[in-house]
Amino acid sequence: MSQHMFKLINKITERLELRSIESILTLFIGSCLLVLSGLVGFILWYSSASILVVCTVLVLLLCPFALLCWYVRRALLNPYYRFSAVLEAIRNEDYSLRANPKFNQGAVKLLADEITTMSADLQSRKSQYDQQAVLVLRLIEQLATPIVILNKEYKLHHANEAFSNWRKQPWQTLRHTSADDLGFTSAENKWQLRDESLIAKWQLRHSQFTMQEQSYQLLVLTNIEQVVYHTEQLAWQKMTRVLSHEINNSLSPIKSLAQTLQDMLKGNDDFANLDPALQVIVERSDGLMQFVNRYANLSKQFDVHTEQCEIAPLLQSVSNLFDYPIEIKCDALFVLADKVLLEQVLVNLVKNAIEASKSQQLIELNAYEQGMQIVIEVKDSGTGIQNISNLFVPFYTTKAQGKGIGLNLCRNMIEQQGAKLTLSNREDKTGAIAQCWFNI
């Protein structure tokens, strides 16, 4: 019987298109009012009451009943309106609003507790997520490799200090700049650098991630120039060890035999014309052995002792070694380096700058902080660097009396201190600039 009743009620509600609690309550209250009015009216009519009495009784009974129905309706619906406001606040990531219904038990209280628990849980998760996001952004800031984050429109959203150094301007001034204007292109979701000259030095890696329901592109630039350089260095070192061993083993007996023949032929006029030839053999053997030994020294390991060095006195001591106009500008106090090796490198770089400059042209010796690095640089106003690609090729030199090992030796000394040596032409005027980059 009850099943038939429920089916009947469902059919009635479907016919009446009752799709909300409000409409059901309205129908129920209206039905109660009609039933009550009909019942009271029938009783009064049956008792032969006058129309005035009937109307008076109906008003006195129905008005309080109507107010009671209105109060019940509001009491039943208000919690749901409150729940709706709380859920909307949660959707907007505002977790401060609470349901707090008037009912302290029953289904409404249970629902309110569930919403409060869900809100607290989502707030905790969001807090953890925000902390992780901040941590990731801080980590990106500290990395020495340029990193770029693009939004879904492929415009700059965030970057790090290394990218600012790479672009030579603060990344904040480039915010919302398109990827194309930044020098990146994308074809079939494969990113690459637009400038072909940079492709040989930088590797571009790409990944996609979602943060706060927004899609982002992460671009990471890796300097492969250092990787290639170290690979070449290892190959040169292996070859040097083999050549040094073989050449020295071959030249030593040749030199010894030539010297023995010289001693044997002394005073013998019949073989006097052989002495110059033997002397050439001895000298060339010495020269070739020195050549091989010099090259072997290019990659030798130094006994490095890094410490906090005062930069200003160091630059002044280097300047005092030369009778030449040198301007010192020091905006950094200390650098973590091997003082002896760094001083030797600076002496070599200043010497090269003087040789490249015309008479009494000013040499600049500067030190400053750039991002998370200390830069010590030597600037000259000479002719500049003609062939940058061959700068660190062993024994390559443009000097008449040069041996082509100075810059390689300097680079080796600097890199064994965990730093980097770069050389380039000046942008503000003619001349070259040598920079030693130390991490803070």
Explain what you see:
The protein has 440 residues and is α+β, with helices and mostly antiparallel strands. It has four domains: 15-120, no CATH class; 142-224, Beta-Lactamase (2-Layer Sandwich), CATH 3.30.450; 226-298, Helix Hairpins (Orthogonal Bundle); 307-439, Heat Shock Protein 90 (2-Layer Sandwich), CATH 3.30.565. It contains twelve helices and 13 strands. The chain has helices at 2-15, 21-46, 51-91, 107-142, 161-167, 179-182, 196-199, 224-265, 274-298, 311-319, 339-356, 406-415; strands spanning 147-150, 156-159, 184-187, 190-193, 202-211, 214-223, 307-310, 326-330, 334-337, 363-370, 373-379, 420-425, 432-439. Strands 8-10-11-13-12 form a five-stranded mixed β-sheet. Strands 2-1-6-5 form a four-stranded antiparallel β-sheet, with helices on both faces. It has a two-stranded antiparallel ribbon with strand order 3-4. A hairpin with a 2-residue loop joins strand 5 (202-211) and strand 6. The longest helix has 42 residues, at 224-265.
The helix content is 40-55%
Quaternary state of the chains: single chain
CATH superfamily of the largest domain: Histidine kinase-like ATPase, C-terminal domain
Topology as a string of helices (H) and strands (E): HHHHEEHHEEHEEHHEHEEHEEHEE
Looking at the structure, the CATH topology of the largest domain is Heat Shock Protein 90
How would you describe the shape?
rod-shaped
How much of the sequence lies in strands comes to: 15-25%
Strand order of the largest sheet: 8-10-11-13-12
What structural category characterises the helix and strand content?
alpha+beta
Query: What is the arithmetic mean of pLDDT?
Result: 79
Helix segment count?
Answer: 12
Unreliable segments of 5+ consecutive residues? none
Overall number of domains? 4
What's the CATH C level of the largest domain? Answer: Alpha Beta
Q: First CA to last CA: what distance?
A: 86 Å
> Biggest sheet, open or closed, and with what strands and sense?
5 strands, mixed
The name of the CATH architecture of the largest domain is 2-Layer Sandwich
Radius of gyration: 44 Å
